Amino acid sequence: MNQYELAVVIKPTLSEDEVKVVVDRVKTRVGELGGEIDGVNVWGKRRLAYVIRKQTEGIYVFLNFRLSPDAVKEMVRFIHLNEEIIRHIVVKEEKKVTPVSQEPQSSAQTSAVTEEKNEEPAVTAVPGTTSGDGSANPQ
User: Fold this and answer.
1) Kind and range of the H or E element at 31?
2) Cys staple from 6: which of 63, 106, 115, 133, with CB 3.0 to 4.6 Å?
3) Is residue 9 assigned to a domain?
4) Domain of 77: which CATH number?
């Protein structure tokens, strides 16, 4: 199962109880499809950046859940059929990669690396972009 985040914009004309019903239906559907809800975040009514289905405001709700990739297609179909949801997006959350721990280096290797870092990099100037003293001069 993969980790997903679902963002939905619900019609602003719904009451708090009706919004809870819509969210509960989505949560129930995730459970029916074999997924697990990790969190629900209701932002409330916000102004939209542009008019969607003749609405200038919407109620924002974010759901974090785990679900199989095949079941996500069914989840999106379910959301399309829900008339209270005016916009949605499902985003797969990538797993965070932890850096591989490096083994300690010997003192000889460490000093060689330090010497390489202390050297100044060679700078090649593009003709017509240097001043008389040889330093780079952006134009």
Assistant:
1) helix 16-32
2) 63
3) yes
4) 3.30.70.60
How far is residue 36's CA from residue 55's CA, in Å, rounded to a whole number?
32
Q: What is the pLDDT of residue 95?
A: 75
Residue matched to tokens 């709700």: 61
Asked whether residue 130 is assigned to any structural domain, the reply reads no
Cβ–Cβ < 8 Å for 61, 23? yes
Q: Which residues fall within 8 angstroms of residue 48, CB to CB, at 6 or more apart?
A: 9, 55, 56, 57, 58
List b or e across 106-119, with b for residues whose CB sees 16 or more CB atoms inside 10 angstroms: eeeeeeeeeeeeee
Domain count, the chain: 1
pTM tops 0.90: no
